[in-house]
Amino acid sequence: RKKKNDTKTTAQKIQAKWQIINIVSNDHSNGNDDILTETGESGDYYDIRSDGNIYSHFQGSLDTSSYKLLGDSKIIIDGTDTVNIQALTNNALTLYEKSVINPSEYLEVTLNLKK
What we know:
This protein is mainly β.
């Protein structure tokens, strides 16, 4: 049997202010990967709140997006972008998105976060 307070839902786990470790993007075209890693600075964050919004600050830019959790493994951002929850622990969150442009072109973005 599980104790009452031991099991948090995915929503409870992701709702926090996370520090951005880095954002890794891969702009793949014509069989070539173009990988760019942007490192988060001390004031950069990704704040996932219970009000259905994500407030973020990265490289001097503030942004607000709406989100909806889809099951335990996906987040829909602004109603259009489907982001996969690749890893989720008490202290780490990895989000991954792949946008396919055509069979030989795609963009992958991985967001690595920590508490």
